[in-house]
Amino acid sequence: MAERLIISSSPHVMASDDVPKIMRHVIYALIPAVAGAVYFFGIRALFVILVSSAVAVLTEAIILAVRKKDVNEVFDASALLTGILLALTLPPSVSFGTVAVGAFISIAIGKQVFGGFGQNIFNPALVGRAFLQAAFPVEMTTWIPPRIMQKVDAVSFATPLGGFKFSHIMTSHKALLLGSVGGSLGETSALLILIGGVYLLWRKYLDWRIPVSAMISLVVLSGIMFLVNPSKYPDPIFMLFAGGFMLGVWFMATDPVTSPVHPKAVWIYGAGIGFFVVIIRLFGGMPEGVMYSILLMNAVTPLLERYTRPRMLGEEK
Amino acid sequence: MLTRALKAGVHPDECKFTAGSQIQQFECPERLYVPLQQHLGRKAKPVVKKGEIVKKGQRIGEADGFISANIHAPAGGKVKTIEKVMLPNGVFDDAIVIEVNLESGEVAEPTWPMKPLSELTPDDIRIIAREAGIVGLGGATFPTAVKLTPPDNVKIDTLIINGAECEPYLTADHRLMLERTEGIIEGAELVRRAVGAEKVFIGIEDNKKDAIQKFDELLKNKSGWEVVSLRSIYPQGAEKNLIKVVTGREVPVGGLPFNVNVAIQNVGTVYSIFRAATEGIPLVERVVTVSGDAVSNPGNFVIPFGTPAKLVLERCGALFDEIEKVIFGGPMMGMAIKGYDVPVIKSTSGILCFKRAVREKPKACLNCGKCVEVCTLNIAPTRVVKFIRAGKLEEAKNAGLLNCMECGCCAYICPSRIPLVQWLRYGKFMLRKMEAQK
């Protein structure tokens, strides 16, 4: 007879989903977007992603070791995910050195300075990207056409949003959906991102309210602007599928660490992202505003949580 | 029939392997260790002395105050001694040790009025519950007589009979509903009379279709009764949740069911009232589900209180060499026991033996919000636990700490494996300590 029984607090059973498993499945959900990046921009895209991932994982491991934390934490794959996400937001022609700097900043400044996993306020991949945008503005806004449309003039090539903002050129919805347009590595095809997003929805690994509220708010707001002046403002479907919006709201705004959990806060958070994207794109100096919108809403998340505590069962309304 | 369901909650693997096993009487062992603390409230006072001969059903412990319960001898024999035994919660407390005389069939005279059921008055019924030591058998073991005595200015209009049995593995209530259906109905009628309710609901989860059907047939033409089929989800059987699902009413924070004119009783509880009223037998035994992957002959047994776990497990073919964990109760809210000497008591709905205890290292909270999503009381466990970990007990209290019923959904679902329930318990403990010092 066993001498010692194990005692512990209830519950004595646990659901099968743990952090490494969830992270793994988010990475699986990015496979279509990664494959798209390679298809549209060539094998170099894969190397950009590999460099970014490797530097992110390595940075995490080194800092964990320096902080005398369990280095095995690196295997929960969250640093890997940050590395992949960062790469997907970068222009295809980005230099490997820039990628490495971005990945380092993402993990070191975006995540570990706050105390590591679960402690950061801002999405780490977007912190890295924001740094690159500030440090290398030209490199970060130089675009190349996807391989399937090489005929265009590569020197003055622009993304759909840039083309609209600066030259008032419209890109077709079909091109935006399939991805035969310029842009960051993983953002060009709305369809490939949606496939991954729907997979995560099905596995219940992402909070559907975030992309849904962000998309509704973007479509409604840009729809109103379009109705007011169709010749000046783009149509809402263009706004939805162009640029980094889909990648942002499905894979970055939904980062659990930096998004709220109280139901009301979640809706406000999503709607806020959609709102700021429209404001920045239509009235700001830059063609794209997804990164700043998400970072902005990350910043107000603690405040939103504070004022939206759910009503307890039996609490007065 | 409408199927209703709790919003939120979790659905662990049901594992109700013993649902088809008929209730068997467990043979009374030669020695019983009957604890004086088998219920919520104050410990009973012993009323027998060492060496005294007791009859089956004789009162050996007397309720100490209003919120307490009588304790009776599960079998006739001789009081050997009063000694400390380990209770399921790990605390050592007084138990009356009885050397059982299996030959003696003598049963003690009931200390409550024995009349035809139809002649029992509400006060008679309360006396039965009090005298027969009946407590809530759903798990909380709150003295039933107290629940049958709502304040004078409260009108109870609804009685809910709780047959949800939403804990995985447990099938004791399920079998009772199938095999003692009439007794449950009669017992519920007595409770209905005691509290003056017009309407009676019996809520049963739809993983027990046969029980739903059985009650439906028997109650078809009975006025004021309604069988409610519930889609299986945990913790639907928790008092406040079941009231919300069945009646739509919300028991106020810090309140009790009577605040919303509801009385609620577990099927096992009403059956024991019926048994006391008809057979004159107090609460001295209960149905216990014995199951788990380290038990070769699982089943449902009527086990006398004071029977050590070891004897139960030997009888059920437990693979002692392989056991890592033994749980008294269900896997979501039960208690892991430290040793095999722990006796079966009034709260023991199950004894589960497992070869593997789940052991995982907690990670940092990733703020995924799953715990918030599953919490049926809407407490936002992650937030409360963050306050507790930071030592901010006042904030934790304001965020709903004391409202938590420790159902375990948050810790079950947490992908970071944070022992949220343990933290919540610790927080309650520290808060009580802090408030006592004030």
Secondary structure layout plus pairing:
The complex is a heterodimer of chains A (317) and B (438).
Chain A: H1 19-29, H2 31-41, H3 44-66, H4 78-88, H5 96-108, H6 124-135, H7 160-167, H8 173-178, H9 190-202, H10 209-228, H11 236-241, H12 245-252, H13 263-283, H14 290-306
Chain B: E1 3-4, E2 23-25, E3 31-35, E4 45-46, E5 53-54, E6 59-62, E7 71-72, E8 77-86, E9 92-100, H1 122-131, H2 144-147, E10 158-163, H3 172-179, H4 181-195, E11 199-205, H5 209-219, E12 225-230, H6 239-247, E13 262-266, H7 267-279, E14 285-291, E15 299-304, H8 309-315, E16 325-328, E17 335-336, E18 350-354, H9 370-374, H10 381-389, H11 393-398, H12 409-413, H13 420-437
Parallel strand pairs in B: 1-12, 2-15, 10-11, 10-13, 11-12, 14-18
Antiparallel strand pairs in B: 3-9, 4-6, 5-8, 6-7, 8-9, 14-15, 16-17, 16-18
What are the main properties of this structure?
heterodimer; A: mainly alpha; 0% strand; B: 438 residues; alpha/beta; Rossmann fold; 3 domains; 6-stranded mixed sheet; 5-stranded parallel sheet; 20% strand; globular
Structure description:
The complex is a heterodimer of chains A (317) and B (438). Chain A has helices at residues 19-29, 31-41, 44-66, 78-88, 96-108, 124-135, 160-167, 173-178, 190-202, 209-228, 236-241, 245-252, 263-283, 290-306. With 317 residues, chain A is mainly alpha-helical. In chain A, helix 1 packs parallel to helix 4 (78-88) and helix 3 packs antiparallel against helix 4 (78-88). The mean pLDDT of chain A is 92. Chain B folds into three domains: 3-16 and 112-279, 3-Layer(aba) Sandwich (Rossmann fold); 28-108 and 286-354, Ubiquitin-like (UB roll) (Roll), CATH 3.10.20.600; 370-437, no CATH class. In chain B, the strands form four sheets. Chain B has a six-stranded mixed β-sheet. By secondary structure, chain B is of the alpha/beta class. The chains are: A mainly alpha (317), B alpha/beta (438). Chains A and B meet through helix 1 of A and helix 6, strand 16, strand 17, helix 12 and helix 13 of B.
